[in-house]
């Protein structure tokens, strides 16, 4: 242990000096703890930049208390489980659909775009029950404004079509004499709750006037996860997951849909899952303890002290965090016969394994998760996304794929600089210097 401490000090000194001095070359075999990998997971670090020797890597907090102290903030709901029925902030659920009455005025087109940006559409009160719910919702926000919803006859006068292209059925609570199309009115709205004669009835209104409020609807989150989520600087690229007692339980990578190519090519259909859709984001999730324990029991202080960052590495591969789980082998020797393809060992970073790597593969099939072994033991993993993402958390490998992969898929020739990767180490000791192959 003393030797280890000296090495850590030396490592720290080398890093502080920003030097490339290869001090570790003095030692042919760095000291490696021989106990189970989980027992050596004494940290949590994320690299910045493709070369961890040159760039910083961030030591992440492993308790909620420490995270809050370091400026991390709760991301999303203050609860341990991301529920299937979760609505975005400000939305209320009714019969499995989320609704929000916006207290701002917009024309039909801008209102519609606002709803799309929230991952939904203008609301569609297709039945009495939903209609009554929306009337209460809008009147609680503003009883004296009219509110748009998603019904128009823009294509063909008198031919009323919902936002989902379904034709208006017999449920049509228009106010008396409506729709009347005076001054070319093609967009449906609720009369205000305080309207003298037609309170809360439907009216055909102008699509272009900017004085009408509006109601959006969205489907609840399809993804669920376990743990309280924390982010720093509102950047979901690194989202920490804490168990019910505030100890580290996992890490999530979130990317906002607006950051992804608009053609929907990411995430590719070939590899969803492990991507999970969460309203306006796509998520990749890793856990360091059994996911079913995170919100039920959590870990005790003693368990956390004893086990460190965690006991195992699990990748969530579907919407159910307790059943849709891939357990990553702790020992490199256990990867034989699996679809994990041995990559190159990069001294200081570790031995990479990629999922089902082939020369002639389509880059869309590139599995977004890779794993890393150091001295034969799992000590790191990472994300690999086939597009350029802006967060400073990501690395953008350029043309050096041969240093990490064997074979290098031909399709990667076109991807220089346009991939985004992130390395996550479960150890604190200064690898990169301790990582060997
Ligand atoms: C909505 O806006 C109006 C002003 O247009 C304001 O009087 C009212 O309090 C607002 N409602 C809510 C719920 O904030
Ligand atoms: C409705 O139809 C239009 C054109 O006919 C199409 O562009 C749009 O994607 C459709 N919307 C939905 C929700 O199906
Ligand atoms: C809305 O205004 C009408 C007419 O003034 C009133 O009867 C009704 O109770 C009000 N509703 C709400 C929710 O304030
Ligand atoms: C409504 O707002 C838009 C900008 O969103 C503007 O171009 C348009 O002229 C406005 N229309 C009216 C009638 O004021």
TrEMBL record:
This is CD209 protein. Residues 94-207 form the C-type lectin domain. It comes from the Eukaryota. SMART domains: CLECT. Pfam families: Lectin_C. InterPro entries: C-type_lectin-like, C-type_lectin-like/link_sf, Ca-Dep_Lectins_ImmuneDev, CTDL_fold. Keywords: Signal. Residues 1-17 form the signal peptide. It comes from Branchiostoma lanceolatum (Common lancelet).
């Amino acid at each position: 242990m003393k030797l280890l401490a000296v090495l850590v000090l030396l490592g720290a000194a080398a890093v502080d000096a920003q030097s490339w001095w290869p001090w570790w070359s003095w030692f042919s075999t760095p000291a490696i703890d021989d106990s189970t990998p989980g027992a050596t997971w004494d940290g949590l670090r994320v690299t910045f930049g493709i070369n961890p020797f040159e760039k910083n890597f961030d030591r992440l907090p492993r308790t909620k208390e420490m995270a809050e102290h370091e400026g991390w903030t709760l991301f999303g709901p203050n609860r341990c489980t991301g529920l299937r029925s979760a609505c975005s902030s400000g939305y209320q659920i009714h019969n499995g659909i989320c609704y929000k009455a916006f207290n701002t005025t917009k024309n039909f087109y801008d209102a519609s775009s606002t709803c799309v940006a929230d991952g939904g559409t203008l609301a569609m009160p297709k039945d009495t029950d939903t209609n009554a719910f929306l009337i209460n919702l809008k009147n609680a926000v503003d009883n004296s404004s009219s509110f748009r919803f998603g019904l128009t006859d823009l294509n063909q006068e008198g031919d009323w079509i919902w936002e989902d292209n379904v034709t208006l059925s017999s449920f049509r609570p228009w106010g008396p004499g409506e729709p009347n199309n005076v001054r070319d009115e093609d967009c449906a709205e609720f009369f205000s709750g305080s309207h003298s004669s037609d309170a809360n009835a439907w009216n055909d209104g102008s699509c272009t006037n900017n004085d009408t409020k509006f109601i959006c609807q969205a489907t609840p989150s399809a993804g669920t996860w376990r743990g309280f989520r924390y982010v720093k600087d509102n950047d979901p690229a690194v989202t920490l997951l804490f168990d019910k007692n505030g100890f580290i339980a996992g890490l999530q990578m979130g990317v906002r849909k607006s950051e992804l190519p608009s053609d929907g090519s990411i995430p590719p259909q070939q590899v969803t899952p492990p991507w999970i859709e969460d309203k306006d984001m796509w998520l990749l999730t890793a856990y360091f303890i059994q996911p079913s324990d995170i919100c039920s029991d959590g870990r005790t202080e003693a368990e956390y002290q004893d086990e460190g960052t965690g006991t195992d590495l699990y990748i969530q591969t579907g919407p159910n965090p307790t059943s849709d789980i891939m357990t990553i082998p702790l020992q490199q020797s256990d990867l034989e016969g699996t679809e994990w393809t041995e990559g190159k060992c990069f001294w200081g970073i570790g031995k990479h394994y990629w999922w089902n790597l082939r020369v002639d593969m389509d880059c869309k099939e590139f599995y977004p998760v890779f794993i890393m072994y150091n001295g034969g033991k799992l000590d790191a993993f990472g994300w690999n996304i086939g597009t350029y993402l802006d967060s400073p958390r990501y690395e953008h490998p350029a043309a050096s794929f041969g240093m990490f992969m064997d074979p290098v898929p031909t399709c990667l020739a076109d991807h220089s600089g346009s991939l985004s990767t992130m390395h996550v180490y479960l150890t604190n000791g200064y690898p990169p210097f301790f990582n060997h192959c």
